[in-house]
């Protein structure tokens, strides 16, 4: 066994243990370890006199505090991290020599950071934005970083335009508004002038930009990489993550409300899920293209504004990642983690994708200043498990105590160590690609089809998804004050789909395009639609149970237990915290009160039977709760007298069973009702099915709900 494999037996968690400090230490000390006797008053010349410079404890405490902030990431400033592990399903030896992709029995530690892109570090989680999905694999051959997003394409084809893109979407220069939003003039001005952005715009205006949870979104490497096997044979690859819980989104109105009620919504969801043992799981997939087929597609496979449609290049699911531990310290782990697409291991190589090429420079460059100099790889979260050994020395915050006098190669004094490794010894050998060409600022012609895949995406959406995209355009462009900017975007979209351009124009007060655009294709790629995602589980869904004095205890206990058994998290909500009494004198503990929670943070709501319905139907809070859940297309269940609240809340267009009836429960558009004499088991089954569907978009056709 060679040296690298031995170190893998030490887990990342064990490595981090060396740096963990628990709060059980008895005495407060200075950074020099000297015990402090008093920390409430500074050292003064007399009880009412000035503070003395010699108060080293005061000075040290304040000095450290004054320097606690580091620059936030220029993009992806707001993020949340988690530890976990990755396992491959079967040896990938035929395609790659990467050691972590060979042995299904091996667990490779990972750290993942999910993020929004545009907002500052303290911005809200639920804004319309791309989500970052960056994974650091601590492999036995060194760190491999897959720095991806939850959308498979990007805004631009060449990294040289990245500063322009980011300047346009960030808050405007003169007044620093708006926060964490693309809905303003400069971004849409940029869009209208850059046709290559069109495909990505379709994704950003779709429901993908509003994930219900970091645990319920896809991940994509976006750029084209290579797999290289031990014989040196290479294939082009694209990487994918897919969540086992399916890809689910919030509703736009809901995201805006959550941004106020719980700006940490996605962060909290990830944290709580891991604490409760609902470990997020993602399957890892690859699409592979043989080198010989490089030019056999309508698109250029090095163009990051294009997908490789699954119909043409199937995805092979080769492994699974499980996130099972929250960080102990947000700053030290999640804030200081540093990802870089250039961090690859033998068996995974780069391509000439011009977006990727520029990224290879940018990440290290930004980290040098963000993390205070060239030694940030020594920060515990960034350390490799394979020992790093080279002749780099000194610089700010150097931690490693290198021994010996030589720090150069070749050397005789240090027996010529550390020396380069051959490929057989695990050395990274860059794939030998033959390159011939002129030194020019240009791109290949195939990059210039900006509309076919935007149209493919549009064609693949369900009616509800299409409607959401149109509404998103109405919001985003509706916020643009310059009508010329708005018009230019409508003209751009006219190249994708004439009808879509007309629908957008209608909502934003600009004339439709003079000539309806020619359709750029009728092809579909069905898996692009979220309608095809996993909809057979209610695991980790939050279900609100509204209960006031007089609720039906036995029924609540039965439904609550059934939901729990299926992996959901039911919570009792009542006017006040404490206990609430049932009709037959039993009690149940309230989880959240009317002032501490709101319908927008739940996935479903259930109104039990019992006399409490008389109170509920006269409470604005309860009426609004149900009403809003209905508007946001969430599953709603009601039994017996609970149905009265549905009626009081103004829900129309859905048939309820009679409150006092018997028989099976009835489910319509995700509203499940069961009479007080009815079959609660059938209610539970139908309610679970409705929750598993996540949202019931057919309700959106009934715009009558005022919430
Ligand atoms: Fe980037 C951060 C993803 C293009 C320059 N990027 C960053 C993060 C993610 C991505 C997930 C946050 C990592 C973390 O959690 O710390 N970026 C992408 C994807 C791209 C992409 C999927 C397209 C394929 N990025 C891109 C380009 C450039 C950058 C073209 C510049 C040439 N990205 C950066 C950066 C950041 C960054 C400025 C900010 C903080 C950092 O790197 O460490 O260097």
Name the helicity range: 25-40%
Please report the distance between the alpha carbons of the first and last residues.
65 Å
Number of domains: 3
Q: What characteristic shape results from the CA principal axes?
A: globular
The first-level CATH class of the largest domain is given as: Mainly Beta
Q: List each distinct ligand once.
A: CIS-heme D hydroxychlorin gamma-spirolactone
- Supply the CATH architecture of the largest domain: Beta Barrel
Largest sheet: 10 strands, antiparallel
Poorly predicted regions: none
> Count of helices?
19
Extended strand count: 21
CATH topology of the largest domain: Catalase HpII,  Chain A, domain 1
- The value of Rg in angstroms is 29 Å
Q: Any idea what the CATH superfamily of the largest domain is called?
A: Catalase core domain
Overall SS class: alpha/beta
Our estimate of the beta-strand percent is 15-25%
Overall mean pLDDT stands at: 96
Can you describe this structure?
The chain has 707 residues and is an alpha/beta fold. The chain has helices at residues 3-7, 12-17, 56-66, 162-169, 185-192, 198-204, 252-261, 265-275, 330-335, 354-370, 452-460, 463-478, 483-494, 498-508, 553-565, 612-616, 620-631, 642-648, 680-692; strands at 79-88, 108-116, 131-139, 142-149, 219-220, 225-228, 234-243, 281-290, 316-325, 348-349, 542-546, 569-574, 579-581, 587-589, 592-593, 604-607, 636-639, 662-663, 666-668, 671-674, 677-678. It folds into three domains: 79-162 and 196-382, Catalase core domain (Catalase HpII,  Chain A, domain 1); 451-531, Catalase, four-helical domain (Hemocyanin, N-terminal domain); 538-701, 3-Layer(aba) Sandwich (Rossmann fold), CATH 3.40.50.880. Helices cover 26% and strands 16% of the residues. Strands 1, 2, 3, 4, 5, 6, 7, 8, 9 and 10 form a ten-stranded antiparallel β-sheet that branches. Strands 15-12-11-16-17-20-19 form a seven-stranded mixed β-sheet, sandwiched between helices. Strand 13 (579-581) and strand 14 form a beta hairpin. The longest helix has 17 residues, at 354-370. The radius of gyration is 29 Å and the shape is globular. The structure holds CIS-heme D hydroxychlorin gamma-spirolactone. CIS-heme D hydroxychlorin gamma-spirolactone (HDD) binds at residues 73-76, 79, 113, 115, 132, 134, 147-149, 154, 159, 162, 222-223, 304, 337-339, 355, 358-359, 362-363, 366-367. Its EC number is 1.11.1.6. This is Catalase. Pfam families: Catalase, Catalase-rel, Catalase_C. It catalyses: 2 H2O2 = O2 + 2 H2O.
């Amino acid at each position: 066994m060679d040296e690298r494999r031995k170190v893998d037996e030490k887990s990342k968690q064990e490595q981090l243990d060396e740096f963990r400090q628990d709060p059980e230490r008895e005495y407060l000390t200075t950074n020099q370890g000297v015990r402090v006797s008093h920390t409430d008053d500074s050292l003064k010349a007399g009880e009412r006199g000035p503070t003395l410079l010699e108060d080293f404890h005061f000075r040290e405490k304040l000095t450290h505090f004054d320097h606690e902030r580091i620059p936030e990431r220029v993009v992806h400033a707001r993020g949340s991290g988690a530890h976990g592990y990755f396992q491959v399903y079967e040896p990938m030896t035929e395609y790659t020599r990467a050691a972590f992709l060979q042995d299904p029995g091996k667990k490779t530690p990972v750290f993942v950071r999910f993020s929004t892109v545009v907002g500052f570090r303290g911005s809200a989680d639920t804004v319309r934005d791309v989500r970052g999905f960056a994974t650091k694999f601590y492999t036995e051959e060194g760190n491999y970083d897959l720095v991806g997003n939850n959308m498979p394409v990007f805004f631009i084809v060449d990294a040289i335009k990245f500063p322009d893109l980011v300047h346009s979407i960030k808050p405007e220069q003169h007044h620093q508004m708006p926060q964490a939003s693309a809905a303003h003039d400069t971004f849409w001005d940029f869009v209208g002038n850059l046709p290559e952005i069109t495909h990505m715009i379709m994704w950003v205006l779709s429901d993908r930009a509003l994930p219900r949870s970091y645990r319920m979104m896809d991940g994509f490497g976006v750029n084209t990489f290579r797999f290289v096997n031990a014989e040196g044979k290479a294939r082009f690859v694209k990487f994918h993550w897919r969540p086992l819980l399916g890809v689910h989104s919030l509703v736009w109105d809901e995201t805006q409300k959550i941004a106020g009620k719980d700006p940490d919504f996605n962060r909290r969801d990830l944290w709580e899920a891991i604490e409760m043992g609902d470990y997020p799981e993602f399957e890892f997939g690859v699409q592979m293209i043989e080198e010989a087929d490089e030019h056999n597609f309508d698109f250029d496979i090095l163009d990051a504004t294009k997908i490789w449609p699954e119909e043409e290049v199937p995805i092979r699911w080769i492994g699974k990642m499980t996130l099972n531990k929250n960080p102990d310290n947000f700053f030290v782990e999640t804030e200081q983690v540093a990802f870089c697409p250039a961090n690859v291991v033998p068996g995974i190589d780069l391509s000439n994708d011009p977006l990727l090429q520029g990224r290879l420079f940018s990440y290290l460059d930004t980290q040098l200043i963000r993390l205070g100099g060239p030694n940030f790889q020594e920060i515990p979260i960034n350390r490799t498990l394979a020992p790093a050994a080279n002749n780099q020395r000194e610089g700010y915050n150097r931690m490693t105590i290198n021994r010996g006098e030589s720090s150069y190669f070749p050397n005789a004094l240090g027996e010529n160590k550390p020396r380069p490794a051959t490929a057989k010894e695990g050395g990274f050998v860059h794939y030998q690609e033959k390159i011939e060409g002129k030194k020019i600022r240009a791109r290949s012609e195939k990059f210039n089809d900006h509309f076919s895949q935007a149209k493919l995406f549009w064609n693949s959406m369900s009616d509800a998804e299409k409607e959401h995209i149109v509404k998103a355009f109405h919001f985003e462009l509706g916020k643009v004050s310059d009508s010329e900017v708005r018009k230019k975007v409508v003209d751009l979209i006219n190249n994708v789909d004439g009808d879509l351009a007309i629908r957008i124009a209608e909502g934003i007060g600009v004339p439709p395009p003079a000539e309806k655009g020619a359709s750029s294709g009728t092809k579909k790629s069905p898996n692009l639609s979220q309608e095809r995602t996993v909809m057979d589980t209610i695991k980790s869904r939050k279900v609100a149970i509204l209960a006031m004095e007089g609720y039906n205890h036995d029924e609540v206990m039965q439904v609550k237990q059934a939901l729990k058994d299926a992996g959901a998290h039911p919570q009792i909500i009542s006017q006040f915290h404490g206990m609430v009494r049932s009709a037959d004198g039993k009690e149940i503990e309230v989880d959240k009160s009317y002032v501490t929670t709101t319908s927008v943070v739940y996935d479903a709501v259930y109104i039990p039977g019992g006399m409490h319905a008389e109170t509920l139907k006269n409470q604005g809070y309860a009426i609004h709760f149900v009403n809003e859940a209905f508007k946001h297309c969430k599953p709603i269940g009601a039994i017996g007298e609970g149905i009265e609240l549905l009626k009081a809340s103004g829900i129309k267009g859905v048939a309820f069973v009679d409150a006092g009836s018997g028989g099976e429960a009835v489910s319509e558009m995700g509203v499940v009702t069961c009479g007080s004499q009815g079959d609660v088991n059938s209610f539970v089954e139908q309610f679970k099915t409705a929750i598993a569907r996540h949202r019931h978009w057919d309700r959106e056709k009934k715009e009558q709900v005022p919430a």
